[in-house]
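Page 37, continued from 36.
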């Protein structure tokens, strides 16, 4: 602040000196122009036929505080009564024509030389001129310190308004850590760069918080869900090591271990898919897709599962159907929704699927004839690891990640997914992209 004060004082002083110099120069030009005009007029009348001199006294009328003299052959031939030779004497042999000197009151002298009808000059003298430039300088000098203090106060207040949100932002940044992403900064009530900076910081904090929460949720979910299959694997291994086993028994153990391993692998892939993409980076992976082909490929993989339960897949797929999106997420969306419908459908039933363009949007609908889902449980279906019917779910393989992955895929494509279900009649999942 001291440095700023000195700089402001220097600038104010420099401005005052510049204004004083300009004011002094302006006063000089003003007086010179006035005396030159009066001298030329007096010269014409003094050297003309008019009687302008009586007994060595010039009787012409001059402006207030202005005196005159007629110089002939280096001597004063005539003058006004108030003319003072000593004021203009410095100009007599210097060759200069104008002189302005003094302090609070100034004296000016103008020397107009001529050579005809004789060698001489008309000298105009103006005394007691108010020194406006000095008065201006005194006013500036008297007001410099108070004005500087006022400007410093205004600058301090303005700088305080600017720095307060920056200090708040700085304090928040110092407190940010992996364990603390809870504090955002209130945006200032003004539309400027500080508000833009605060908004950008808050958006960054929210993204970091979401990322850390996603990572923590991933770690928690993974640790929780790995406990059961790992316990099964350990139990199978310990049981197999208690006594010698026949090759057939060893094969059975290895097959059970392989199933549990595949389950762990599928669960890990599902959790990674939920965590890999975010609204900020998903668009970078978008490409032009043929959704009809992606759905057909998903159905090709799932038809054996449907046939094993005597379930028919009825499809109405518009072709070609292009869409710009992420191929991994779209494949997961189709695969999980169709697989869920197959898993929870009774044997010898029908699943209806529609994929079409409707009023500029893509509509995908899957309808099964399963037992349906109670309304109270519908809003929980897309939560990770949630399964509506725990008793029935124990007989159906899976981890409760399918609908979470499907909803995440739809959300990342700015779409909407709705689930409608009636107990005893079945469930319909509709996706609008």
């Amino acid at each position: 602040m001291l440095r700023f004060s000195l700089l402001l004082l220097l600038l104010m002083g420099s401005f005052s000196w510049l204004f004083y110099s300009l004011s002094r120069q302006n006063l000089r030009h003003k007086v010179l122009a006035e005396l030159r005009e009066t001298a030329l007029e007096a010269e014409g009348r003094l050297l003309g036929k008019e009687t302008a001199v009586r007994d060595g006294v010039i009787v012409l009328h001059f402006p207030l505080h202005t005196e005159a003299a007629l110089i002939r052959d280096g001597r004063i031939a005539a003058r006004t009564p108030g003319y003072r030779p000593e004021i203009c004497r410095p100009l007599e042999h210097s060759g200069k024509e104008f002189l302005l000197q003094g302090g609070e009151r100034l004296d000016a002298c103008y020397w107009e030389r001529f050579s005809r009808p004789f060698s001489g000059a008309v000298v105009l003298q103006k005394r007691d001129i108010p020194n406006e430039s000095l008065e201006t300088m005194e006013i500036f000098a008297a007001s410099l310190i108070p004005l500087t203090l006022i400007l410093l106060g205004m600058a301090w207040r303005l700088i305080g308004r600017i720095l307060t949100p920056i200090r708040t932002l700085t304090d928040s940044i110092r407190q940010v850590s992996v364990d603390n992403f809870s504090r955002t900064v209130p945006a200032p009530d003004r539309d400027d760069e500080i508000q833009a900076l605060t908004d950008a910081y808050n958006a960054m904090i929210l993204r970091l918080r979401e990322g850390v929460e996603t990572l923590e949720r991933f770690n928690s979910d993974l640790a929780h869900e790995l406990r059961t299959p790992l316990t099964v694997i350990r139990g199978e291994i310990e049981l197999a090591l208690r006594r010698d086993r026949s090759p057939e028994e060893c094969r059975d153990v290895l097959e059970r271990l392989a199933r549990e391993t595949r389950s762990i692998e599928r669960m890990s892939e599902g959790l990674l898919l939920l965590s890999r993409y975010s609204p900020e980076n998903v668009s970078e992976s978008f490409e032009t897709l043929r959704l009809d082909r992606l759905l057909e490929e998903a159905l090709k993989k799932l038809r054996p599962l449907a046939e094993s339960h005597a379930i028919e897949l009825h499809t109405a797929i518009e072709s070609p159907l292009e869409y710009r999106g992420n191929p991994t997420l779209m494949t997961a969306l189709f695969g999980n929704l169709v697989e869920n419908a197959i898993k929870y459908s009774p044997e010898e039933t029908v699943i209806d699927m529609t994929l079409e363009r409707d009023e500029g949007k893509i509509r995908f609908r899957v309808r099964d004839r399963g037992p349906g889902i109670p309304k109270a449980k519908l809003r929980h279906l897309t939560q990770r690891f949630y399964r509506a019917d725990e008793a029935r779910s124990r007989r159906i393989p899976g981890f409760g990640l399918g609908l979470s992955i499907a909803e995440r895929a739809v959300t990342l494509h700015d779409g909407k997914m709705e689930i409608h279900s009636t107990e005893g009649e079945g469930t319909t999942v509709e996706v609008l992209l």
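The chain is about 50% helix and 20% strand. Flag for discussion at group meeting. The CA atoms of residues 107 and 127 lie 4 Å apart.
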